[in-house]
Amino acid sequence: MLAKASDRLPEPDLADAAWAAGVETKRRRRRSVLIGLIAAVLIAVIAAIGVSLSGDDNSQFIPPITPPSNTNYLAPDGQINGIDFWVAPPSGSERFLDRLETPLGDRLQQPDNVEPLADRPLDRIAAVVLDDRGDRYVPLLLGSDSSWARADVELLPIRTGTPLSSGAVSPDGRIAAFPQPGELVTVDVATAEVFRIKMPVQDIRSVSWLPDAQRVLVSGPGVAYRVLVGESSSGDEPLVAIAGAADPSAVTAPFRLDKGAVLRYMAGGQWTVDSALQLQLPVRAWVGQTFSVDSTAARLFIADNLPEVRTNSSQPQVVAAISTLRAEPSRLLILGEPTVMSSTPMDRPYVREPGCCAVLGWYDHNTPLFQVRGWVLAWDLNSGRVRRVTELAVAGLAIGPGIHP
Asked: Are residues 177 and 53 located together in one domain of the fold?
């Protein structure tokens, strides 16, 4: 029965089966090659499109990325005679501002048990304060490393009181100069040497260094002198009378903001209007010294009534950062009206009266430093923002280049 059944089944042809299998395999390979070719063509087309969009070079196409905006920048609050101005944070808010790190620390106060300068010489001066000992003052010097040293000299009061001028520190941060009745006293912080230079007049109130750090302008009401402190190869006289000013603080170099113009100090001791740059500003009176860096001079002025900024009780005061180049912008910072915002006596707002504020110098080429009551603040000219530098627990200070690391 098995034999009969198997006779009826078709006998398989192995050659035909092998041929069929081979044909199917060949077809599959052709499909794979075709798919691969199509994929390669698509990749080439996409690459060609990328090159055409990116230019004639062979760089890979990258979608454009929109650069992030500068979130730190503050737009100006307006203009005064074509100069952009910003309104500073109100009095009482200083403690809540972002802090600029400096050797002055978070709170500048008179240190205890300061070592003599002879035992602790300094590299560069960051700040100078005076230890009030009744009828005498002793200079305390803060270095760029935040260490303190005491100068071995006692200073007498001057006509205006404390013998500390805001321009006391030389541009290289090595020498501090102090006005004294009838003389100029200098202290070298690297060697601890003290020098006394006799002056032709008794009423000396202000000192301001020339950029060479070898000569200093010493001034009183209506009189001024250029004093050689370091060694000079140009044969300068040790003491030369120059043009003075009714306000001794106005005598500064290389620039001074005064009389509605930027004045440049000349080698002969005269001042000339720099590039005929006239300042159309509502100045009632200038306050403090002018401090210059590169082509920008900064000084504070008390303004007439400003219609651009309403005030009810404060006298408008303005930090002016004036460029001596016409291609560079000038800027103004208005110390505006206080607001009621704090419940603690320390942070209560106060009225900004004339004499409360003045420019102290520069932190860097874009940041002037200025003093308000109880604080030193920094104004970033690039962003318009104001930051706190330190809280003041001293009567006054002069700032040097050692404040910048």
From this structure: no
